[in-house]
Batch of 4 targets.
Target 1
Amino acid sequence: MSFSASLRDVTLKYGDTEALSDITLALEPGKIYGLLGRNGAGKTTLLSLLSAFRRPTAGEVLVDDRPVWENIDVVSQVALIREGGDFDDTDTVKAAIEIGALRPSFDLDYALKLAERFELPLDRKVNQLSRGKRSVLAAVCGLASRAQLTMFDEVHLGMDAPTRDAFYKELLAEYLDRPHTVILSTHLIDEVANYLEEVVILDRGRIMRHENVEAFQGMGATLTGPADAVDAAAVGLEVLAEQRLGGTKSITVASALDAADRGRAAAAGVEIGPVGLQDLFIHLTDPDRTGA
């Protein structure tokens, strides 16, 4: 079983400031979603609504087609994991993990297995952990929660690159073993792009885009080849970035290429590839482009 999640005409205000403005969003069950946005876009606020940490000023928040606010049957199957976790600093790592077992679906054996794999010192107190190890502890508790809706809010930021890679692989393995709904809020877009099925982009408290990954990959292209040929192929296209090494040039364009464009580029010896999700995100949320 997996949980769907939806927000219907949701607004959340902090005083006179609207953190989220008239949000309508529907997430199907059993998928891995990427939640992207610049700092202050409203990502953490949105996740806090889905986990019933906050109540919307207006609108309706549903998880599994049921109101999430003060609904223990729903909330007990929803996990929001934030960077560094929400632990008592005076607890030992083992005690912090065991507290997670209060959640009905928590798998303590799995959590302890992950703790061993990620070399978490069980006898050390939480406040004695490095930032990276504390992030690992949070991730372990999130994976072992076995929740039907699991949300990771920048939980990987303190980890080094090998640990992040191991976390992503474990997340995918656990998802394949037990299909459920996952939301990853992240700034490390290129690292997680291959794990995502759909992407939601927040911009200044509003939904800018919600598409499957394939749709984003079709929004632009990279052109690589002899510099003169690449420049000719890019005429009339919006260029996001370019690199040059000797006589070879590579550019990223925001425009999708039609069959005629592709034919001319190929004839001129220009290779065409997909544009990275991170480059598209930077372009789409550029304040100069969106008028901020």
Note: The two ends are 41 Å apart (CA to CA).
Target 2
Amino acid sequence: MIKQTRTYQFILLCVGILLFASCNHNPLKIDVSGVSIPPVKIERLEKDMFAMPKDSIDRYTPILEKKYGRFYDQFVIDVINDGGVRDSTYNAGLRRFLTDKDIRHVYDTCEEIFPDVSFLENGMTDVFKHYKYYFPDKSLPKVVTAISGFNYALAFKDSTLAISLDMYMGKKSPYYFMLRFPEFKIQHMSKEFILSDAVYGWLQSVYKPNEDKNDMLAAIVHEGKIRYLEDALLPELGDTTKMWYTGKQLDWCKENEFNMWAYLIENKLLYTTDQTAIIKFTDDGPFTAAFNHDFCPSRVGYWLGWQIVRSYMKHNSKVSLAQLMAETNADKILQRSGYKPSK
């Protein structure tokens, strides 16, 4: 009798373990060791530019053009002048940029913070392996770093993903306060956010909105698709880093998911095409104005869209990532998602 009882208890324990494992299994945590791609080697445009002799710009420019392709000209247009490399003001503008005392100090500071970018090379290599696993026929971008003079954090031009290191110098950088960057943004202008920001920026550039409507649901579902793809490429990364949320802000979203969803439904906002109304729930900022609460973050509409897509993929396991990104019908995704947040 004792032996039978122990056997029964052992079976229950095994069943419990299997059920727990199945409930907590993340289907996006896959083995990509068999995916073969060249290790990512990040080119350092800022190093090449600041190593350029200031009296030999004409001689060194073709070298940079050959190494960085058309991206170099686009970088010049965005940062140095509007006319690009062939503009008559190119030499003088680039010389001013490279000899500016503050820009030089920014470059030197970035050299101290980022003596090498192996952490980013390893991270992007893993991301690209995941991407090739899901999209074997898709091309991968070249990755470069730069100093943009605080013009942008990320840029995707001519199949090149550029990361401006001066936008990730750490939340205590005096430059961010002098330039009056918003406090909520400064909190995330640090090294630990580069990888997720780079992946998100790249995906946003590659996967433009393709929904067949221009309403709130289409906007938040498209964002949900981008965020779910980011989940697939960075399966170990937490939601707080991806969304720029604190732990308390993320907890607030989870605790108030039903209330936020009900608010959109009751106020007939889900299918509104009023861009002013949509922006209130999707724009970046310290909070979402519609939900006045200490821990309510911005972009909660996008967070809800993310949960819709997660639910859709959970309930439609045969839908591939490629099919998800190609789907243009946000209503279909919602209807087949089984999304119904509880109180």
Note: The beta strands are 43-44, 142-146, 154-157, 160-164.
Target 3
Amino acid sequence: MSRQEMKKLIVVEKIMNGHMTNNEGAIALGITARQIIRLKRKYEAEGAQGIAHKNRGRKPAHALSEETKNRTAALYADQYHGSNSCHFAELLQEHEKIELSSSSVRRILIAKGLKQAKQRRRTKAHQPRQRRSQAGMLWQIDATPYAWLEDRAPRFSLHAAIDDATGEVVGAIFRQNECREGYSLVMQQGILKYGIPLGLYSDRHTIFRSPNEKLTIEQELAGETRPLSHFGKAMADLNIEHIKAVTPQAKGRVERLWLTLQDRLVIELRLLGITTMEAANEALPRLIQKHNQQFAVAPRSDESAYMPLRNDVNLDHIFTIREFRMLGQGNTLSYAGVIYTFEEPLPQRLNAKTVVEVRQTLSGQVFIWHREQAHLLKKTERMKPQQKKKASSAPQRKPAKDHPWKTTFNVSKRNTKHSTFQDAMYSQHNHYTEASW
């Protein structure tokens, strides 16, 4: 018997022996007098055994069978290893038609030695930032490298953006590395599906922030604005307020998203048998939709803050690389080592040495942006760098057989020639002296 049952037995025996009244026993046990009367009847009919609970030693009717426990443990070890208890319970219901609570799954895995009971840490008290009231007021964007396919493929980066008001992932794509193209494709996905947000929160990566962002005093006095990166120029064209966070905690919603996706997305990709990044990108929209259905919340306000995308705006012309070039004779220009000219003649011919803005899309298409219009370019000739002639070594010169260097050195002959030369010079000197007299 338990300690509580032993206490009930002692009180009932005292009442039966006349040492306590029913009301006194009820107060001592913290129950009503009617319950005391029921206990007395059980004691009279069954003795001390009637006070004990009748289900002690019996298996509960709703207890899990050993077969279910063994199958659950085997499925976790073979297919679903690495998933947390909550996600594992969802996967069992979705794929195996086994309905178990997350607490039951946790107890089974701990009993089988597949997981260890972790002691919960005491959370630090902090005041979280309140969500924005309307969907589309603020997006948070980031990328993280991770082994999304475990050992089936090399690591690559997931680019994603999340709405601050709803926690809904508005766009996501896998790329080999964190890059401007990945962020641009994520923004295009979200804008085409939901609309243009009012603001964007990102880190201070050079993709978002130009390394020459600080202006000199002369530039500030001249009224120049801050230089923008290619991505920043696209945000300015769409009138999106771009905020660059100083710390990761400032954009904590997208940082916490990585913890969820790294815990769940890896298991989902493994179950689908995906082994390449291309196949992962094909399955990603369906997995993100599943994530949004489970974790997205309703905004505090039913009104939407999204700005509609105008029909005359082509996002391929917005998310580009932008550089300035000078037109040459015949409306030609040089870009990336290639000479381009207009694919179709312009309505108004531009003069030579006119500075124009050249843009290159994510697909590699090159065009000129002039007066809010895109004018496509075509290749004419590839510029070949002039190769400088390398100085060749001089050919080896071989002296002739009668060359003085090959003759034998004779001292006596040299002295004879020297004396003859001196005699000739002396006689010539005397001749000029006599003539002068």
Note: The chain has a mean pLDDT of 85.
Target 4
Amino acid sequence: MKLLEIPAAPPLRRSGRHARTWRDYEWASMIPLVAVHVIGVFGAIAGVVMGAPTSAWVCALVFYGVRMFGLTAGYHRYFSHRTFKTGRVFQLVLAFLAMGTAQRGVLWWAAHHRDHHKFADTERDVHSPVQWGFWHSHLGWVYDRNDDFDWGRVKDFTRYPELVVLEKLWLAPPIIFAVASFLTLGWWGLIIGFFFSTTLVWHGTFTINSLAHVWGTRRYATGDDSRNNWFLALLTLGEGWHNNHHHHMASCRQGFFWWEVDVTYYILRALALVGLVWGIREPSRRVLDSGSAPQPGAALLPSAQQPA
């Protein structure tokens, strides 16, 4: 079956960035993205003016939280870094929730993210703001001929046929979320509950690429420009503790200290109590103490390049 076939690896790129001018981006492919923004943002404004029901705004809040958790716990901490363990059924649930954000397939996301850590803030990091600036790191890289990915980078998950099929049907989860919002709450549910919350989830996620390597503080001396930022951490349920994460990516807990709010970690701990997840990886005392003294002027350090 074609849905179960694993494509060959794409040719190796010397640089993750291809778009050298504005004309090089795949602008036609951005039409759905623009449409979601127009419907979501202008729909939300219309909802304020026309008095959209409270249920639509509650739906937007719930969809934001549930899908952001799916993204942070699923796309990132589980599929990209394997920082905790779970069963096959809940693994599929995490993949579905994450893909409900309409950020392509779970294997595509994890493969690109693993490359991000391997080549962080070098020319082969496709969404480094240090290398390519805000626009490209925030959003442009997705429309820079990055449809293909090396399936070999995620061979630990390609052995699950359900994930391979879901990867190739990556639009199915967001469509199901959209249909559910419309059937339960009508047009306001679709416009505000789905489209507006999707726009917010997108930009919340993208800020970790575009801002968490230029805005914030550095506790650890990593080979990149990753920063810790409390505001981004609140916005993304804990992903803003990005310097912590780059210091020890194998840790499920990214807010290393009690004052570093990490909602995703708290939810995973609660799920562990009922047996849905286990083997949650914590930072060791050696990791916490390694290079923990703040560096003078660290927040303004230039990029610390590492060899590609």
Note: Strands lie at 85-86, 277-278.
